[in-house]
Amino acid sequence: MKTKITKNDVKSAIKDDKAHIDYLKRDVNDDQKKGGKYKDINQTADEKHISKLAGDIKHDKSWISKHMS
Questions:
Q1: Cβ atoms 61, 21 nearer than 8 A
Q2: Which of 8, 38, 43, 44 has the greatest number of beta carbons closer than 10 A?
Q3: Over the stretch 31-64, which tens digit does the pLDDT of each residue have?
Q4: Cβ burial 5-28 (10 Å sphere, 16+ → b, else e)
């Protein structure tokens, strides 16, 4: 799903993505500590999601530099 950002919400979107990354990193650490049957599957999914969010942040910052300078 592609959500369009505007000047009004771009900074909030970046802040939200950073908070989500922080949560996912803690989840990865918890998965590593607890182990379990699905540890590798869950960890890989979380890491992919972190990469996607990091890409979103990079795109948002690029948008800011083009449209808000």
A1: no
A2: 43
A3: 888 877 778 888 899 999 999 999 999 988 888 8
A4: beeeebeebbeebeeebeebeebb
